[in-house]
Amino acid sequence: MNINFPEGFLWGGAVAANQCEGAYLEDGKGLSVQDVLPKGIHGVRTEEPTEDNMKLVGIDFYHRYKEDIKLFAEMGFKVFRTSIAWSRIFPNGDENEPNEKGLKFYDDLFDECHKYGIEPLVTISHYETPLELAKRYDGWRSRKLIGYFENYVRVIFERYKDKVKYWLTFNEINSVIHAPFASGGILTPKEKLTLSDLYQAAHHELVASALAVKIGHELMPKAKIGCMILGITTYPLTPNPDDVIATMIKDRDTLFFADVHARGKYPRYMNRYFKQHDIHINMEPEDEEILKNTVDFISFSYYSSNCETVNPDLAEKTGGNLSRGYKNPYIKASEWGWPIDPKGLRFTLNKFYDRYDLPLFIVENGLGAVDELVDDGKGSKAVIDDYRIDYLRSHLLEVAEAIEDGVELMGYTSWGCIDVVSASTSELKKRYGYIYVDRNDDGSGTLNRYKKKSFDWYKEVIATNGNSLLNS
């Protein structure tokens, strides 16, 4: 096979503010929805932050970012994806004036990246809706959040327009349908929400996302602004035409959000879906015009695939990263039951590129596993994570195939380039990074950083622009 990653390919890694920063009330920061989810997206929320919420400390990136950025630079990162915690900038989300200390932190963080020639790739909203917006307005169910988001976006674009050239609007925007509180700050319990409620909230986010693109293009003509989609790849379980049609319909749960971002309007297939499910969306007269502000590129997360069938007795349920489907008998799974399907990444890249003819960016991909810290024989400690290397190598080889297929790919940022608190379960034992962080689920640990075997492996991949994948 050929390895032809393009010149200037943006190799790097990704984290989210709420999973790494900690310092959850420091320097004027307000609470976010994550501060009351001690067991992660799939857990029960609390009224106030509790000590068992690992995200309150995270990996203390807020105080240790210089140390971590230096390690990323040692690996050769060209790009570092992180997010801005909205409640660091506007503690309640609806203030008129921003918190200067919060703005200064990200100034310093982006400066530290540029010190090593690393471009920041910044997610504006990564499951970090200010908690007060959830309490006062029921999150993105309220149209008022569009105005508050616009104010937030204008502030950060003006502040960082000379420091950040790559932006993402909402992380995994389609996840608001699956996890309305974590993704959309919707305080009403999911079981009490109708599909109209969920798609109305999604509509508000889509309008806000398009508005951010419009503002960004006005204030930062040279910047690239993309959407971020929860990449759920689904195959028909059998060649039964009914399974194929069921897969087509399920695919549209994901593609709808990319369609609006890339094409600037609601796709016609949603007319039937809304009619069949008695979904009614309230649109303001200006919404159609705002949605025409389309993205410069499409980014997405990819961890696994699943199957769809009209005959549920044929297979057991499976899932991963908010996706649910049926188990593929040809695919193995991770320790957490997530199907491992490298070829699905090539398929997804081709599907998106064939559909939109826009540059793509893989901004999340990785393996969560239990790592063991051992003596490295040189007076220090390390993790021998050959299983992670195997996972990443197999996926990156399929990325190379997709590039050979003709897909235009901007870059690749593997998820959790340094160990972070899991979004789905709030565990630290589920580790993704090239760098081990000495902190445990009971809160113990030194927070010291240790390089894993995958650290040097990824360093070589970046240094050779992917060519070492053929030998590693």
TrEMBL record:
<keyword id="KW-0326">Glycosidase</keyword>
<dbReference type="InterPro" id="IPR018120">
    <property type="entry name" value="Glyco_hydro_1_AS"/>
</dbReference>
<dbReference type="InterPro" id="IPR017853">
    <property type="entry name" value="GH"/>
</dbReference>
<dbReference type="Pfam" id="PF00232">
    <property type="entry name" value="Glyco_hydro_1"/>
</dbReference>
<comment type="similarity">
    <text>Belongs to the glycosyl hydrolase 1 family.</text>
</comment>
<dbReference type="GO" id="GO:0008706">
    <property type="term" value="F:6-phospho-beta-glucosidase activity"/>
</dbReference>
<feature type="active site" description="Nucleophile">
    <location>
        <position position="364"/>
    </location>
</feature>
<keyword id="KW-0378">Hydrolase</keyword>
<dbReference type="InterPro" id="IPR001360">
    <property type="entry name" value="Glyco_hydro_1"/>
</dbReference>
<dbReference type="GO" id="GO:0005829">
    <property type="term" value="C:cytosol"/>
</dbReference>
<dbReference type="GO" id="GO:0016052">
    <property type="term" value="P:carbohydrate catabolic process"/>
</dbReference>
<protein>
    <submittedName>
        <fullName>6-phospho-beta-glucosidase AbgA</fullName>
        <ecNumber>3.2.1.86</ecNumber>
    </submittedName>
</protein>
<dbReference type="InterPro" id="IPR033132">
    <property type="entry name" value="GH_1_N_CS"/>
</dbReference>
